[in-house]
Amino acid sequence: MNPSDPKQGEREYYARKGPEGIAHALGKPFSDDRCKFNLSNLAALFHLLPEAPQRLLHLGCGVGWLSHILAQQHHEVLGIDIAPEAIAAATQRRDEAQLRNLDYQVSDYELFDGGGSFDVVLFFDALHHAEDPAQALQCAHRALKPNGVLFAFEPGSGHHDAATSQDAIKQFGVHERDMPVSLIFDLGKAAGFRRHLALPHPADTLAELYHPAYHRATDQDDLDTKKIDHIGQITRQVSRRDAQSEIALLWK
Question: Digits of tens for pLDDT over the chain (252 positions)?
């Protein structure tokens, strides 16, 4: 990481990933090892979003794979990313699809001025890359209309120390911060958000209920018992107050 430019790693990330890395990112969610996790989160996001069309600001959109999907869902979307190569790839894909309700801009999401014109702001696996998360949340707050909502789908405690995070830090010089909802809520309150809600990641719930252990059941009673056990585990997960990773919603 360049001490004179602490955002250099984020700015040059896709340039260093190269065409193969950009193609992989454009293929998300299906191209990625976390496909099931991301698809589950997309389903949750689609359920939680107000009815389209919403004016939606996607901060840290990367190559725009999610922005593209949201535009296909008839929202008016602006995707922001600090990496020029990412925005170039996103723009090319948008133009090929002739999506007129989708725009992109190369910009630092800690400095972007949304002018209070958006119904929804979204961080999807992006806030934890911020140089200054407090400034990023201030930007999100400024961009929202009164009563607008911020969604943050972020890794929680322990993310920084994970092997994949440490590899990314060493290889690309990016930030890989822990981003638990408690921190997001504290920073959000300081930025001016009025209320907040934490919800469990749906991937955890789905993985527990739709479990391959059912295939190992010996008879009908065993199947019924396994289902009851997994439902009980879901109940315990949902009621935990120390969950490592949750979805954060904050209202202006």
Answer: 555 677 999 999 999 999 999 999 999 999 999 899 899 999 999 999 999 999 999 999 999 999 999 999 999 999 999 999 999 999 999 999 999 999 999 999 999 999 999 999 999 999 999 999 999 999 999 999 999 999 999 988 888 888 988 988 888 889 898 899 999 999 999 999 999 999 988 888 888 889 999 999 999 999 999 999 999 988 887 766 555 568 999 999
99 in Cβ contact with 71 (< 8 Å): yes
User: How many H-runs (helices) and E-runs (strands) does the chain carry?
Assistant: 10, 7
Residue 158 structure tokens: 């322990």
Spatial separation of the C-alpha atoms in residues 49 and 168, rounded to whole Å = 31
114/9 Cα distance (integer angstroms): 24
Strand partners, 153: 124, 247
State yes or no: cis peptide before 53, omega within 30 of 0.
Answer: yes
Q: Cis peptide leading into 155, omega within 30 of 0?
A: no
pTM: 0.91
Could you please state the CATH topology (level 3) that the domain comprising 8-35+43-200+247-251 is classified under.
Rossmann fold (3.40.50)
